[in-house]
Amino acid sequence: MRATIQIREFVEGDWAAVWPIVRDVVEAEETFTYEPSMTAAQARDIWVEQPPGKTVVAVDGDRVLGTARMGANRAGPGSHVSTASFMVAAGTRGQGVGTALCRFALDWSRERGFAGMQFNAVVECNHAAVELYKRLGFVVIGTVPGAFAHRTLGRVGLHIMYCAF
Q1: Angle at Cα 132 formed by Cα 92 and Cα 78, nearest 5°?
Q2: Tens digits of per-residue pLDDT, 62-80?
Q3: Residue 101 — pLDDT band, cuts 50, 70, 90?
Q4: Residue 22 vs residues 63, 126, 156, 162: alpha-carbon distances, Å
């Protein structure tokens, strides 16, 4: 059954549903460069963006399907380029949640006048994400060989991807 996806701003009460998604993704050691043993408090400090950045959740009614964070990729002279990260609950992958979150982040960035969006560390064997980003206008700018220690595949590359606006 395909989810009805709505994107809304993260509120503090969402953390109880977001944390299991973050924990599961990070502990899998397949797609994110976060420390797998991080606590809920450490994860919250990393994941929940402070203004002017934004954190959102994708929901179907009361159920949190995924989450995203977005903001400037760098400060100062690099602040005209945005970045974003996305996590989708295991049971809802392949249902358009990641696409909806990425489109939201792209629109949010364009509305704020960013020149483009850069992803700093897309695991090259995360084919679903790489293909999604390409469909939405991103290109692989380069790949850092062996920069990610994948749980089962060993060291694999991290793509740097960019979408100009």
Answers
A1: 115
A2: 999 999 999 999 999 999 9
A3: very high
A4: 15, 16, 21, 24
Q: How far apart are CA 102 and CA 155, in angstroms?
A: 26
- In the block, which residue shows the tokens 């993260």? 10
Closest CA to 92 of 117, 67, 125: 67
What CATH number has the domain spanning 6-164? Answer: 3.40.630.30
Check residue 63 and give its pLDDT.
Answer: 94
pLDDT at 6 over 80: yes
Residue 87 three-state SS:
strand
| Distance in angstroms (rounded) separating the CA atoms of residues 4 and 71 | 26
Q: Distance between CA 68 and CA 144 in Å, rounded?
A: 24
Q: Tell me whether strands 116-123 and 81-88 are parallel, antiparallel or unpaired.
A: parallel
- Are 64 and 89 in contact by the 8 Å Cβ rule? The answer is yes
Q: Three-state SS across 95-146?
A: CCHHHHHHHHHHHHHHHCCCCEEEEEEEECCCHHHHHHHHHCCCEEEEEEEE
Cis previous bond, 77, omega within 30: no
Domain extents for the chain?
A: 6-164
pTM of the model: 0.94
